[in-house]
Batch of 2 targets.
Target 1
Amino acid sequence: MMTDNELLRYSRHILLPDIDIAGQQALHDSRVLIVGLGGLGSPVAMYLVAAGVGHLTLVDFDEVDVSNLQRQVVHNENSVGKNKAQSAKDALLKLNPLVHIDTIEEKVPADQWQSMIEQADIVVDCTDNFATRFALNAASYQQKKPLVSAAAIRFEGQLSVFDHRDVSSPCYQCLYSPDGSEDLRCAEAGVVAPIVGVMGSLQALEVIKLIIQSGESLVGRLVLFDAKRHQWREMRLPKDPHCPVCSAS
Ligand SMILES: [Zn+2]
């Protein structure tokens, strides 16, 4: 049961027939794991907390650096030197004290993602490296949990949803060969500040749609955004029959 305070706080959601009280309650009862509290993780966490997602687990072992503040908007000047998950939690509880937030502030070994994902309803990939993305994908596939994944670099972004509850869904690994992919990081290539805001906000939106079970998800589709020319492209993303993670064998 929601309190009067919650009914008022979330009233613009509750007005929407697609959400209503039942959808808001579903948001309240959901557990979302956010991996990476940088450029993408900032808007993801801020919107999910503002929207009333009841339980968030924030994972980041990194510390806030002054060069992060250009785009990682959940952090501020006083966060420099603090752990990113802790810094984000401090800011998020000021935005909405009614939600529950856990932090994991150490590096997570690849074999420990499964137990962490087991306790979540949805996993949001906001990381910046292929090793973690592949590990998260494999573990969320094993646990049959949806993975909402995005990336942004320079003036470009991409977004997809891998719903591992659905056997026909491709997985993140279907997109890439495990050894042919090289990390391209913002530290080397640069990134325009709002592109992570755009892509992270869309991740939060897809998470909410999955929770309220409304609309059409991005499963089997990859969306690409070229901000310089303001062009959106959508590609069909087939399941790779030889994928080492999700193929039938
Ligand atoms: Zn696959």
Note: The chain has ten helices and eight strands.
Target 2
Amino acid sequence: MDSVLLRNCRFVVTHAKKRVLENVDILIENGKISQIGKSIKGEAEEKIDCSQKIIMPALFNAHTHASMVLFRGYRDDQELQTWLQDIWKVEAKLKPKHIYAGALYACMEMAKSGTWCFVDMYFEEEEVANAVKKVGLTALLGCAIIDAIKGWDLERSKKFIKNVKGSENIIPVLAPHSIYTCSEETLKEVNEFSKEHSLFKTIHLSETRKEVFDCVKKYGKRPVEYLHDLFFLDEKTVIFHGSWVTKNEIKLLGENKVSAVHCPVSNMKLATGGAFPMREYREQGVRIMLGTDGACSNNSLDMFREMKVAALLQKWFRWKGSEVKAEEVLEYTTNSPCACFGLNSGSVEIGKDANLALLDVRHYSLRPLRNVISNIVYSATGNCVSDLLVRGKWIVKDGKLVNLEEEKIIEKMEEAVEDLLGEEK
Ligand SMILES: [Zn+2]
């Protein structure tokens, strides 16, 4: 039996909204948490002293384009449309080997900053799947569906789904890019296929005001209403951004059990304006999750930073310091996405998969340690993470990837960047 005993854990954040435990043991057997308590007896193959650790549910990044880490720092500080044109130009040069190198580096970065699972939309997702498996994370992956790019259609997605079938840690999803890059016909096809095969469908929606204006001009209705009329909205629908929505649109999302991924850093950096109406989403019962978006518009994949900015943006926007609490944003990146995608994780409880992040209490960002959850959300960064367990297996130990040479991953990524951007100014 595979077993690990985490002994004398200084603090255990069992659940974003429950009490923090102190000085307890956690026994992990066959990838699942089997016991939590004081001085657990019994044999374990591995016993680790955790008297200097905070144990918390590992984090979940609900929106990424992992391979875009290759373009980190490229064409920053531009207007959205200019930026997009530049990115599309360089993306046209991408080959599968570049996508793999970028995704592998992104997986390393996510693992080392405490993220165990992410939702990705990009090209050649088989390459991303290989990177996820190599590092030992879990991911929901979808090949982008874009009408204007030949070959990136539903057929390509079907092929991807076939190619990754049976992988334990890869869950294929459908990923129509947006309502402005997919025709009504395409969206209908995707919707039908999603319902037939019970697949999640993820889509960028109402990210900018321009998108809303264009939609009203073309269809005479707003983006959410447009998708609602196509019968696209259901419990398997996940929208990215959803910032420019009316109360009526949020109501429609709630009634149809749609989930929304908020990406505050990307929205603020690209100056999409306004703020995600978190309060209204909550009131209408829409499930909220957090994501970084690509490392080209963020420019980090660190979910600790994302939690902090998500909370700050709401407080600032509403002129109300109590608008959002730390526990709430922690929930949006732990329990909430796991509940959305039906994963047995998101909390440190008996029977749950052991997807855990360990933080070193000696890190300067965590001192003084009077309020653990506040420190996690408002002060910690991914650098505080010392170890990561995914289904009871060590992925990161003492700050280093287990079983993989980090230098080689960095080298491969640098080569790909040189290949793609070497001649750029
Ligand atoms: Zn995106």
Note: Residues 63, 65, 204, 240, 293 surround zinc ion (CB under 6 Å).
